[in-house]
Structure formats: structure tokens, C-alpha cells
């Protein structure tokens, strides 16, 4: 188990997504604390990226699946259980957590959509890392 964790940790450290996530989180914390505003060009660029992110993610997921060397033959109950766990259980858990925290309106909707994007990205990341 320890060897598996070390291997995964080394592969994650080689991935640029981890560094970007850490830098983005640190920037968010600093800008919220000291009320910094991003430059206009950066704001518009992030807005453009956020508008195209879901379409790009779904396209990338389809490409990832199409490039698989072999198909995994699953029985129908296993497939339905996996789909249910990914696309029903995860958003339901996020909805419950959002209600506990008190998210409402647009913030609540964004939180639920982010869970679905993370599900797609987790598949792509595990595929890239070879798991």
C-alpha cells in the first residue's frame, strides 16, 4: 500500500495540473484577503475559458475513450451501478453538502456543475497516469 501511494504521489508531482491548482488557490486566498482585482485582460480570458470548459472536457473525454486500446466488457448491472455512483451519488452528495453549508442560487448551481466536471476530469487524469 505504501509503495502504491509513493508511486501515485510521484506521478502527481510530475503533473502540471497540481501546480496550477495550488497557485490558483493561493492567489484566490490572497486576493480575497487583500481585495486585489485581476487585470481586465485576465478576467476576460478566464471568462472565455470557463465558457468553453465543459464542451472541451466532454470532447476530450470522448477522445480519451476512443483511444483506448481495448474495450472493457462489463455486465449491465455493473455498468448501471457505476453510472449511478458517478452521476447520481456524487451530485446528490454535493447537493446535501451545499444545503448543510447554506449555498443558494447561482453559487449552489455552480457547485453541482463543478462536481460533474470533476468526475470527467478524474477519468481523464487516471487515464493519463495509467490507472
From TrEMBL:
Molecular function in Gene Ontology: auxin efflux transmembrane transporter activity
Subcellular location: Membrane
Keywords: Auxin signaling pathway, Membrane, Transmembrane, Transmembrane helix, Transport
Entry's transmembrane regions: 17-36, 48-68, 88-116
Keyword Transmembrane helix in annotation: yes
A biological-process GO annotation: auxin polar transport
Annotated membrane topology: Multi-pass membrane protein
Top-level taxon of the source organism: Eukaryota
A GO cellular-component term linked to this record: endoplasmic reticulum
UniProt record similarity statement: Belongs to the auxin efflux carrier (TC 2.A.69.1) family.
Record-given protein name: Putative membrane transport protein
Amino acid at each position: 500500500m505504501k509503495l502504491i501511494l509513493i508511486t501515485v504521489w510521484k506521478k502527481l508531482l510530475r503533473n502540471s495540473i497540481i501546480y496550477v491548482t495550488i497557485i490558483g488557490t493561493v492567489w484566490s486566498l490572497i486576493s480575497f484577503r487583500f481585495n486585489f482585482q485581476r487585470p481586465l485582460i485576465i478576467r476576460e480570458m478566464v471568462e472565455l475559458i470557463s465558457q468553453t470548459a465543459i464542451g472541451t472536457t466532454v470532447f476530450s473525454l470522448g477522445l480519451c475513450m476512443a483511444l483506448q486500446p481495448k474495450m472493457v466488457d462489463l455486465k449491465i448491472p455493473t455498468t448501471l451501478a457505476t453510472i449511478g455512483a458517478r452521476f447520481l451519488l456524487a451530485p446528490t452528495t454535493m447537493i446535501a453538502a451545499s444545503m448543510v453549508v447554506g449555498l443558494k442560487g447561482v453559487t449552489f448551481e455552480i457547485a453541482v456543475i463543478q462536481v460533474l466536471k470533476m468526475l470527467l476530469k478524474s477519468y481523464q487524469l487516471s487515464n493519463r497516469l495509467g490507472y
